[in-house]
Each structure stands twice: as C-alpha cells, then as structure tokens.
C-alpha cells in the first residue's frame, strides 16, 4: 500500500491541539518593517503554559509574545501589539535589528478549526490558495479567518476583495498574493464605527516537492537530508522492501510500482525536483525518459561520466530526448565536493538542490 503524504505544518498542529482540547493562541506577524528576524505571515502556536510550536523570531520578541499569549489564553481575548527591535548596543538585552513587528495573538483560534482543516487538505493535495486574517479593533478586538482556494482565480479574487473590505484599488495587491507573491498587509479606518480594520492576505506557500526515483541507500539518506531543508519528499521504487515507511522519516511519502510509470503519473510542475538514483542504468534511463519533457525545476541523475555519456547518446539517437532537453539534466549528479560515502553523496545532491531552489541554477560536475 502506498503511504500518503503527511503534513507537519503549523495548521496540522493547530488541528491536533484543537481536537485534543489543548488551550492555545495563534501568534501571527501582521506586519514587518525594516530588518526583522521573521516576516509577515510567520506563525507560532503558544499554549497556556507558554510552550511554543514554531517561532516568531526568537529572543526577546518571542519571549514577549509568549508572555502575552499566556495572558490572552487566560482571558480569552485577542490582542495586537507592536515590538520595536531598536536596541542601541549589542551589550544590552534589547534586540538591535533596527526594524519593528506588529503581532496578533489570537486565543480564539479553536473557532477557526474548519479553516485550518481546509488548509491542511490543500497542502496535502498541493493546491494553492489565500488565507485572509481580519482583525477588527474597536472596544474589543475581534479576529476572523477565511480561506479562499485559487481554483477559479478570478472568482477567488472578487471574494477576497469583498471579504477584506477593499475597493478596486486593493485588487492588484490581492491579485499579487493569488499569483504566489508576498503577503499583503492592509489597514482601513472605519470612523463611523469607531473601529480599525487590519487585514493580512497571504498565499499558501507550498514546500518544493522532491521526487526520488530509487529507495536504496542513497535515496534513504537523501530523503532524510532533504526533509531537513524544507522539501516535501516522495520516494518511488518497484521493490516493496525499499518503500517500507520504516526506512524513512515521518512525512516522506512512498510509491511502489514501475518507476517510469509512477513518474509519468505524478503531477510534476515548476516546483518539483526529480532525483534519479535507481539500482541500474536501464531503470535510470527509463526514469529519465519519463520526466525529461516535464516542467520540473530540477532533474538530476546519478552515474559515472561514461554511463551518462552513453545514456545521452542513446536517448539522442532514439529521439527520446533532444540535446537541449538533456542539457537541463544534472548528471553526474551533485556538487563536486569529493563525496565518497552515502551521506556525503546525499549532502552533495541536497546542496545542489538548494542552489537551484535559491539561485535558479547550480554548479555541475565536470563531464570530462
């Protein structure tokens, strides 16, 4: 049986805490100005004892957030506060980043369980969307949270704009979020009501998907290391013993079946990274042919220079790939760090993945 994708994000934890009856508050950065340790939309969960899941920046800002969260859980009332990181000397206790944060602490988060369930499901299915947090401050502070799927983007745009209380002037900012941009903080005074409306519109940021073709020693080490740097991992192998969940960390999905067919069936897109480390060159070649024309951010294949050269020639001669398509493939795979052991090889591959993710390209192994 295939193992399903497992979410370990903040929303899944919020669901677990709510369902277990654990009293907690969600702390979310509404706005950041200047140099700050964390940016808008960063979240943490803080329970009645001050225990925290996630972070809003560590140090004094996190300590103050935890203190206020404990008080908010006790009172049941949401609050918003500003924190300046403007200490004058490194020797003082005050942070010296130079920026400021506006933070919401919401102990009524359990009321938003249905929204968190929607987001967790969207993450599981890798579907984009927008989360809108609205804070209405008058005699008391009220918080509402809504989720809008990006399916049918124009319809979602109108719904978000209407919900956020914005005119057409705010549509472009919301459209940017729907397109996968940065969170947007909007504020509106409501003089007739003696209130202020603050709105945080944020995209659901999906972790990049790493598909590992081959569940052997390198595949196992790679799954472990890639998970630590933020990749969602799927491992494919046609040998059931090499997709045993016990071989991989929690959160790694496994697929057992013909590797080429499983690759062809996966929804490979611009945030998908494919690493081919099967048990033999024939499996490697079939796996490569199955994904080389897909819009992956990265395709890498293990192998010696000779093996790679022969495989390139065969794919070109058969018409299975063009020279341009083969030029996208990182093969031999990984950075040239002199790796010899399995963990070292996995580290060289992960470093290459990070370079492509953050910089758009990575150094290649010499081919001659």
Structure keywords:
368 residues; alpha/beta; Rossmann fold; 3 domains; six-stranded parallel β-sheet; 15 strands; 34% helix; disordered N terminus
Topology:
Elements: H1 10-19, E1 24-33, E2 43-47, E3 52-54, H2 59-75, E4 79-84, E5 100-106, H3 113-125, E6 129-137, E7 141-149, H4 153-163, H5 171-178, E8 184-190, E9 195-203, E10 209-213, H6 217-228, E11 232-237, E12 253-256, H7 259-265, E13 272-276, H8 281-291, E14 298-301, H9 305-318, H10 323-327, E15 329-330, H11 342-359
Parallel strand pairs: 10-11, 10-13, 11-12, 13-14, 14-15
Antiparallel strand pairs: 1-2, 1-5, 2-3, 4-5, 6-7, 6-9, 8-9
| CATH homologous superfamily classification of the largest domain | NAD(P)-binding Rossmann-like Domain
The coarse overall form would be elongated
Helix content: 25-40%
Radius of gyration: 24 Å
> How many individual β-strands?
15
What is the CATH fold-level name of the largest domain?
A: Rossmann fold
For the largest beta sheet, what order do the strands appear in spatially?
12-11-10-13-14-15
Mean pLDDT over all positions? 86
Q: Beta fraction of the residues?
A: 15-25%
Tally the helices: what do you get?
Answer: 11
Structural category: alpha/beta
Examine the secondary-structure arrangement and name the CATH architecture of the largest domain.
3-Layer(aba) Sandwich
Distance between the termini: 43 Å
Poorly predicted spans: 1-8, 88-92, 153-158, 165-169
Number of domains: 3
